Amino acid sequence: MMRMYEVKDRLVTSALFWWYRITNREEAAILQIKTDQLTYLATPDLLNLYRAAKQVEQAQVAGMFIEAGCALGGSAIAIGKAKAKQRAFRIYDAFGMIPAPSDKDEADVHARYDEIKAGKSKGLGGNTYYGYTENLQDVVTSNLAKYGIPIQDNNIRLIKGYFEDTLYITEPVALAHIDCDWYASVMSCLIQIEPNLSPGGKIIFDDYVEWSGCRNAVDEYFSDKDGYVFTRVGRKLHVSKTLR
């Protein structure tokens, strides 16, 4: 049975699709991601992610694009559509079972992890939850190609594993979309990405409002950092590095 919020979001997506098809064909194509049930992002948040990436691209901020946590690849498609073909885009994900939370995560996170671990998590539109898909990396690669972004032609790499084992950044970063929920995962991303973020670059936190672990990691990490502007855009936190 389709949940009420899924019905509502489909209706909103349908209305927005027709509007943007008339006024902006590029953004109308992004809305198809929702129709195809490839992202948990609400329609306005998906568009805001695309627009943020497009803004960074048009400003010619130096560095690569990064996504940490890609699910079925819906948000990666939005970012891939926004970037120049030659700009490097690195997508990091476990492409399997997510790691256990820690004592830095609160009860909400532990309850969610227990649900996933027990095999009880529901996927989008009644489909299988993406974390239970054995060939998830191939699925994401295929979804990118279906949207006209084959990884081999667009300087995109998918890197499999937990972030503390795979994410080592030694070059400038222009944009990072961090969608990995738990404290340790978010902190691993920040330790690697933030020191390499270019002036004018952005970090977008998908789960700052949703999960305590992400919120605790972000608040702790940036507590002694200057030179950033923090903006709530829809239900997401956008952190922009000031130009200096």
What would your notes on this structure say?
InterPro entries: SAM-dependent_MTases_sf (IPR029063), TylF_MeTrfase (IPR008884). Pfam families: TylF. The structure is a single chain. The chain has 244 residues and is of the alpha/beta class. The chain is built from 9 helices and 7 strands; from the N terminus they run H-H-H-E-H-E-H-H-E-H-E-H-E-H-E-E. It has a 7-stranded mixed sheet, sandwiched between helices. Helix 2 crosses helix 3. The protein is globular.
CATH class equals: Alpha Beta
State the fourth-level CATH superfamily.
Vaccinia Virus protein VP39
Q: How many structural domains?
A: 1
CATH structural architecture? 3-Layer(aba) Sandwich
Shape: globular
Largest sheet: 7 strands, mixed
How would you write the strand order of the largest sheet?
3-2-1-4-5-7-6
Number of helices: 9
Share of residues in helices: 40-55%
Enter the CATH topology name.
Rossmann fold
Radius of gyration: 17 Å
Strand content: 15-25%
**Structure class:** alpha/beta
- How far apart are the first and last residues' alpha carbons, in Å? 52 Å
Q: Can you tell me the residue ranges where pLDDT is under 50 for at least 5 consecutive residues?
A: 1-9
Give the tally of β-strands. Answer: 7
Overall pLDDT level: 88
Order of helices and strands: HHHEHEHHEHEHEHEE
